[in-house]
Fold this sequence. Notes:
Structural class: alpha+beta
Amino acid sequence: HDTFALPAGMQQDLGPQAPKLIAGWSSPNSSRIWVTNGGPWRVPFPPWSEDSVPEPGEDSMIYSCFHCDRMENLHSIIAGEKQVVLVPPGQRDVLNATRYATQRQWLLAPVSSHRGDSQYLSSTLFTSKQQECTSDQSAVHPLRSADTNRKVSKGQWPDGVDFPVRVGRLKKGDTLYIPAYHWHWVATTTPPSLGLDEDGPLAMSVNFWWWPIHNDGAMERWSYQNEEESWRNARMPPPADQRPPDRESHAASFQQLTARQRREA
Length: 265
């Protein structure tokens, strides 16, 4: 959900105190509210019964994959908790990340019975026709076994990790600063799973992104490195109208985009 689409009173409650942090950051570029009721629920049994209801799965947490954003990020917890893993940019390719991969979404929705006179809940796997994700993503999952992660990282995670990886837990009221281009993975737990029923059934958080105002040289290098790795690690053919990254044209494009974003801020 877009934070700026909320009622004015709620916007004021959730508004970032940018001048108290770094005055030069000005207004945020964008913001989002994240809400979840936890991990995927099981399809009820028997699945053809109108009276069946979804059942909680064995894993109460829901996970985001490793990804990175090109903007500065402040992430605040409203309810529930989050475990966060941060990987710094500019390191060797241990995540095998790419934007070019098949995107699938698991859905639980009502479907009509064979007779057409009733409905029941059933699961389906939706496959997107989109060839490119909005950001580079990795299938590495820090809570899974080393063997599992070796298979999805070309043998690089965890064996090739020779730099600091930061791990932390955020609770209600905490705010985490995630610097631009830092890879992050998040596991979210709802209040009921923590025994905090008074905080409601949903885990909620809000984040605000600002366009970077410093360190342009390093960020351009990190951006180009991501482009090279994304192309090299592609799990499906990139769109036909795209070409492999070129060092000179990427630098020019990065500078133009950065200048425009700062003018608009």
